Model the fold of this input.
Amino acid sequence: MEEKVNYALVGLFVLVLGAALLGGVLWLSSGKSYGTAYDTYYVYMKESVTGLSLNSTVRYRGVEVGKVRKISLAPNNVEQVQLTLGILHGTPIKADTVAILQTHGLTGLAYVELSGGSQQAPLLQKQEGEDYPVIKTEPSLMRRLDSSVSGLLNNLNRAAESLNAVLDEQNRTALKKTLADLQTVAHTLAGRAPAIDASLRDAAHTLNNTAKVSDELPQLTQRVQQSALAFGRMSEQWAQAGGQAASAIGGTQQFTRETLPEIHQLVQELRELTGSLRRVSDQLEQNPSTLLYGKPKLKRGPGE
Done:
């Protein structure tokens, strides 16, 4: 005889077992298993978080310290993505700690890397208007590479446009002409290679002579110094001679003041004597007897 199954008891057992399983899952996921507690932090990303998913790893200097609990757009800024992180209680999240989005090699899976945090910095505190403390962010490596490559491409585009603007038809024609002129100059130089070689040899000889002169320059400098010393001694001698000359000039001036008047008077007397002698000579030439008989008496005129 078959026993009747109490479906009510079976259903009640299934419900109790399901509730126990659900409670165990929630308990394990809440982080309270094994006495583990988590602190909640916000992170606002200005870049795409492709590859990042719920329960993605949060690392602090490479050490796993938590999980990503929620990914959503920022409530007040659609240009940012809000990440809710659950980080092990006691992890030293400092005011200068920054969050960077990293990827696992070629897999494309992303995680959050925390870095920075100096020893002297204070712990990160919740700001007014926020439910949890907010960790600062920095651009990821891919974002920096993308910005750098974009900037490089923009610069290349501008350079290409500038080059196209410079190398228009007229400038290209001028450039071709310049290249032709350079080719002519090159052929001319090649034809005058022997003369150029001779000029180079002359230049080398000149440089050698210059080097010899440079070697003799110290001796020449020494001679110039000796000449300067000799000139200095000669200047001193001239100074002494000048002093003596000044004394002589003083004596000459005294001589001039005292003697010249007498000499002048003597010269006048000599002139007068010369005049008298000339007159006597003229008379003797006209009448030599004057020397014997003296000067003849003048004849008296009528009535004297």
